[in-house]
């Protein structure tokens, strides 16, 4: 549960609160982009060996 809370806090602070969505389409494009290209690709994750690229 704590990991999900941390993820959603990061999503809100770094993407949602920093953006001005005008349409649902904006949201449906920006949120997945943030998750795949920013959160998953550029963050160190503590689940075993630090990904991405195994540093």
TrEMBL record:
GO terms, biological process: DNA integration
Protein name (Swiss-Prot/TrEMBL): Integrase catalytic domain-containing protein
Organism: marine sediment metagenome
Domain Integrase catalytic stretches: 5-45
